[in-house]
Every structure is written in structure tokens, then in C-alpha cells.
Design goal:
Keywords: Membrane, Transmembrane, Transmembrane helix. By secondary structure, the chain is mostly helical. It contains 10 helices and no strands.
Length: about 220
């Protein structure tokens, strides 16, 4: 018998429709191919799918039984942990943080004395006739006092004339006296001009008046 005849005989003898056992065997043989194993989801894929399905059920209201309260607790804990982590990593917003009044530099100098301390030292300098020191100290006492009351902000880069303008917005009636006090401070601190008792007394009177005055626009700085 020739080869074509043998092939024709075998094909004719083979069943066109396999029975149950043959079908199962063929399916197992086909699925044992490595390409099918590579296409199956691994453990990580199944875990990710389970998490997605859980969250989806949480928001779709599909959780039943005791899962509702448990899910709410889990979500609350996760949110709290994220908030604490954010605070530890980034901290409070820098724009809202202000230095305490007693640690804020005053016109270029890191003076940590309170307003009361500065007034006392200014009076001591005036008693000794050191008018330059007395004027500088009393003007700083004025600035520190307003900063302690949180009426006028004194930042690290604030100049005496910038401070005078800020103060004038809170105490408009004292605008001219503030300009004169800032000029007196400039004269003795930067221009090296001799101070006077009159200038010291004018700044002291202004400081006393502002300490008793009610601001026109409280909180503006």
C-alpha cells in the first residue's frame, strides 16, 4: 500500500467528533503549552485585583454584613496615617508661620529684648546722657511693643521707614510723628548725626501714646 493510501486509511478510521475523554485529553494537552501559563495572572496581579474590587465595592455600597463598619474604620485609619505622614514630611505651611515677636530681628539687629526691657535700657542711656543709644533703644521699644500686640508686623527685612508706613496704616493720626521718629532713628543709627534730648523725648512720648491708643485698623500690618 502506498503512503497516500495509508494516510487516507488512518484519517478515515479517526473519529470526526471526539468523545469526552478524548476532548479532555486534547484540552489538557493544549493548555499545557507554556504560552498559556505566561498569560495567566500571577499572585501580584490577583492581589491588586482583589484590592481594586474591595475599594470598588466600598464606594459602590456592595459590601455586606460586618464589612461596612470595618471598611469605614480602615478608611479612617488610612486617612489619618496619610495626614500625619504629610505633616511629618512637609510640616506646616511656611507662609503661615511667624516668628515670635521677641525673636524677630529689629532693623537689622538680632535683639531679643522685650519692649519693657528696651524701654528700661533706653531710660538708663538717657540718664547717662547717651542720646544716640537712648533714641535707638526707645524706637526699637516702640516697634517691639506694637509687634508684641500683633498690631504691626516687624519682619527680618523691615526698615524703619517701612515700619513707620505700616504703623501709619494702623494709627493714621500718628503718621507725621512716626515719620519724624523714623528720621531721628536714621540720623543717629546710620548717618552718625548726634542725637538730642528733644528727639528722645519725642519718641518716648509717641511710644507711650501708641501703647494707650486704640488702633484704627487692628491687625493690619
Amino acid at each position: 500500500m502506498t503512503a497516500p493510501a495509508i494516510l487516507t486509511h488512518v484519517l478515515a478510521a479517526a473519529p470526526l467528533t471526539p468523545d469526552r475523554d478524548d476532548a479532555r485529553e486534547w484540552a489538557e494537552r493544549e493548555l499545557s503549552d507554556p504560552r498559556y501559563a505566561a498569560a495567566e495572572p500571577n499572585l501580584l496581579d490577583r492581589a491588586a485585583r482583589a484590592v481594586v474590587e474591595f475599594i470598588g465595592g466600598l464606594f459602590n455600597g456592595q459590601l455586606s454584613g460586618d464589612w461596612g463598619p470595618v471598611a469605614a474604620i480602615i478608611v479612617a485609619v488610612i486617612v489619618a496615617v496619610l495626614l500625619v505622614a504629610a505633616l511629618l514630611i512637609w510640616g506646616r505651611p511656611r507662609r503661615t508661620a511667624r516668628l515670635p515677636a521677641a525673636t524677630t530681628p529689629l532693623f537689622g539687629d538680632a535683639d531679643e529684648r522685650t519692649a519693657a526691657d528696651l524701654r528700661r535700657d533706653a531710660a538708663a542711656a538717657a540718664s547717662a546722657g547717651a542720646w544716640n543709644d537712648a533714641i535707638v533703644l526707645r524706637f526699637r521699644a516702640l516697634a517691639r511693643g506694637l509687634a508684641e500686640r500683633t498690631l504691626v508686623e516687624v519682619s527680618a527685612g523691615t526698615t524703619v521707614h517701612g515700619f513707620a508706613r505700616r504703623t501709619a496704616r494702623v494709627f493714621p493720626a500718628e503718621s507725621h510723628r512716626m515719620d519724624a521718629a523714623a528720621a531721628a532713628f536714621d540720623d543717629v543709627r546710620y548717618l552718625r548725626r548726634p542725637g538730642s534730648e528733644a528727639a528722645y523725648l519725642a519718641i518716648s512720648a509717641l511710644d507711650d501714646d501708641l501703647a494707650r491708643a486704640r488702633p484704627a485698623l487692628a491687625g493690619v500690618s
